[in-house]
Amino acid sequence: MKKIFLTGITGLVGSAFVVALLRERQDCEFVCLARKSAVKSARQRTEEIIRDECKFDGCPELADRILSKVSVIEGDVVDLDPVEMAKNPLLEGVNVVFHCAADVNLGQDPTGRTFRINYQGSKNIVELAKLLKVKELHYVGTAYIAGRLVGRAIEDNPIDSGFNNPYEESKYKAEMLVRNSGIPFSIYRPSIITGRRSDGRIRKPLAFYRILEFLGKLKSHRCSKLGVPHVQPVNLGINFATIPSEHVYFVPIDYVQEAITALFQQPVENRAYHVTGESPLTTRQIQDAVCGVLRLEGVSIDPNEDSPNMDNKLMSRFLGDLFPYFSSDIVFDQSNVRKALGDKILDWEYGTKGLEILIRSYYKDYFPKVEWLQKLAATPMDEPVK
């Protein structure tokens, strides 16, 4: 029996992993650390997320069985006292720690909140793992601990190449804590998580989806100002002030779920795994797909921006933290993933069609009452909107 202490169950990856593993195996149980909200207890939040995840994964009938294998401790990784937590009766018999909780803030960190959650939180969990004398320590990091590296990022040889933000630095240093813990470990490093392969849907949109939301609102504002139908093409006259890349690693959430669940069940060999796939998109592909779905013109990508207009300044203010991920020259090595799971699991790619599908799915799911967006989402790019 594996008894797993897990952080981050209310997050995108944590909930997907718990549901996937408990669908496959009857010999596992989880004790999960979760925060309460202003209106819900930690247990209520966990139950709600697991039911949502089961519904998303097409197995709502399994929610009760899965939840019967999940216990919840109310708490926070930052405030956790490892010595006191180790005394909690629910943790008796825990032999695996799976640390997934993190703050994915890609911007500045003036109060140090992101660093505290990602580094100090990891320090607390590693100390707890030592006190519990667990046999395995699993950690969900990020592929972007590679920071400003140019070239190939090797899975088992992370180096400090400088970082784009405190998030990357905090995750790099947290990974070093895991590596130096003395506990056998597996480290999983996803890239930019996006919608699943089958239909492009995602339960909790992050990162890239902020661009889709921003451009949708900007088009709405521009069309209203010009007095033209929102479904018609419109020239935005905006520029993304960054260098186009050939290596933008969008990774579908179902691949992340499938890969991490399979890797978790492999022997723990002090390895790291790039959960990124090996079929990156290009910045130009993303530009073409977004502009095609939204019927946008006058959207450019050029780092040499002489005199940005107000819309460009607004975009840089709200989206500038994402720019490094659309100009990165990192190539993520897949040697460990391929060795552990074989070539077949890597046999996928979004391509232009998959990218278009995930963009449409986002607008369909998250703007159901915006009629013009619904029309665009339902109309192929090469067809006129009726």
Automatic annotation (TrEMBL):
SUPFAM superfamilies: NAD(P)-binding Rossmann-fold domains. It holds the Pfam family NAD_binding_4. Residues 6-228 form the Thioester reductase (TE) domain. It comes from the Bacteria. InterPro entries: FAR (IPR026055), FAR_NAD-bd (IPR013120), NAD(P)-bd_dom_sf (IPR036291). GO terms for molecular function: alcohol-forming very long-chain fatty acyl-CoA reductase activity. Coiled coil: none annotated. This is NAD-dependent epimerase/dehydratase family protein. It comes from Victivallis lenta.
